[in-house]
UniProtKB/TrEMBL annotation:
Coiled coil: none annotated. It comes from Rhizophagus irregularis. Residues 35-72 form the SWIM-type domain. The lineage of its organism: Eukaryota, Fungi, Fungi incertae sedis, Mucoromycota, Glomeromycotina. This is Kinase-like protein. ATP binds at residue 40. Residues 2-200 form the Protein kinase domain. Keywords: ATP-binding, Kinase, Metal-binding, Nucleotide-binding, Transferase, Zinc, Zinc-finger. The keyword Transmembrane does not apply. Gene3D superfamilies: Transferase(Phosphotransferase) domain 1 (1.10.510.10). The keyword Zinc-finger applies.
Length: 200
């Protein structure tokens, strides 16, 4: 179904490829999961993404088109031509105006607001999970996202990228992630947007 498939990233979940849809030539991103990734986790990511209709209306989210299975599960997603926010800042920070930075900060804040309005926590908000497409922010990677009611019933495991994790998680053994935890991560990202690098 795809042509010109090229790997553009990898992580704990698996790999991400850039490819052209054979029928239209449109550029898409393919997120391929490792064999040991539970089907439940994959379905959770798709459901959390699709739950936020307001996301799509405001174009603040990397849109999922379909879920494929061919030996491995793969999500077909919207491709972000600017890459991750982390890499975008590294390459373009010197040319960004304060208005550009404000727009990025505003769009990320609105995206998080949309998630929280749906009672969903992202739980892994960092500059590698935020993407830039045509100079607009796209929030992505919902692999660790959960509805708040599910978190209240589950354990209190530590997840995410350490510089962006709510410090209360390290100070209180049974602390559970909440909306304030996402907002702490957002604060770190706003620092990163304003300075060009993470604070820690």
């Amino acid at each position: 179904q795809f042509n010109n498939v090229k790997i553009i990233g990898s992580g704990g979940f698996g790999k991400v490829f850039r490819a052209n849809w054979r029928n239209t030539g449109n550029i898409l991103a393919l997120k391929e999961f490792k064999y040991n990734t539970a089907v439940k986790e994959i379905i959770n990511e798709v459901k959390c993404n699709c739950s936020c209709s307001e996301f799509f209306n405001k174009k603040l989210c990397a849109h999922n088109y379909s879920l494929l299975k061919n030996k491995k599960f793969m999500i077909v997603m919207e491709y972000a031509d600017g890459g991750s926010l982390r890499n975008y800042l590294k390459l373009n920070f010197s040319t960004l105006t304060w208005d550009n930075k404000y727009q990025f900060a505003y769009q990320i804040s609105k995206a998080l607001e949309c998630l929280h309005n749906e009672e969903i926590l992202h739980r892994d908000l960092n500059s590698n999970n935020i993407f830039v497409h045509q100079n607009r922010i796209k929030l992505g990677d919902f692999g660790l996202s959960k509805r708040i009611e599910e978190i209240s019933k589950s354990g209190s495991e530590t997840i995410g990228v350490i510089p962006y994790i709510d410090p209360n998680k390290f100070e209180q053994k049974n602390y559970k992630f909440n909306k304030k935890s996402d907002i702490y991560s957002l604060g770190v990202i706003l620092w990163e947007i304003s300075s060009g690098k993470p604070p820690f």
